[in-house]
Amino acid sequence: GRERQWKKDLSSDAFARLVDKLSLLHRSSMWEVCRIRTEEGFDERDGVRSRAAEEPLVYKIRIVCQEGAIVRNGIDIDRCENVGNLEMGEIVYAYDRCINSSGVLRYRTGRGWVSELTRGHGRENIT
Questions:
Q1: Phi, psi values for residue 6, rounded to 5°
Q2: Could you say which of 25, 43, 54, 112 would form a disulfide bridge with 71 (CB–CB 3.0 to 4.6 Å)?
């Protein structure tokens, strides 16, 4: 039954064409990597990128929503407690950002987590 079907699928012309396309993509990607790495100045640019990755990112965010922003003690809005508020115009620094399970981008500040947008159907900016 099932074993015969996947063996049939693997030996099909459609699968062979797919593997050929993927192989071509991989080969052309490797050529492009080699081309970029041999360009003049690559080593210097790569060194700058490497040093930049060692420094943590800091996001400067301003609250733009008239109602301000609710600060929570975790990334999941529905399961985390409200631990404070930020007023419109207030500027805070965030040290991490992540999209939660509801698809909302959240920033981790020193006071807690803040959303980028409201969750309603309007999806208005908070930060």
A1: -70, -30
A2: 112
User: What single DSSP character describes residue 66?
Assistant: T
Question: Judging by beta carbons within 10 Å of its beta carbon (0-12, 13-18, 19+), is residue 114 exposed, middle or buried?
Answer: buried
84 pairs with which residues across the strands? Answer: 71
Backbone phi, psi, residue 53, to 5°: -70, -20
Cβ neighbours, 10 Å, residue 75: 21
| SS3 state of residue 83 | strand
pLDDT for residue 84 = 96
Write down the H helix ranges in 11-64.
Answer: 13-37, 42-54
Q: What tens digit of pLDDT does each residue of 85-113 get?
A: 999 999 999 998 888 888 889 999 999 99
Q: Hey, is 115 helix, strand or coil?
A: strand
- Angstrom distance (rounded) from CA 92 to CA 109: 7
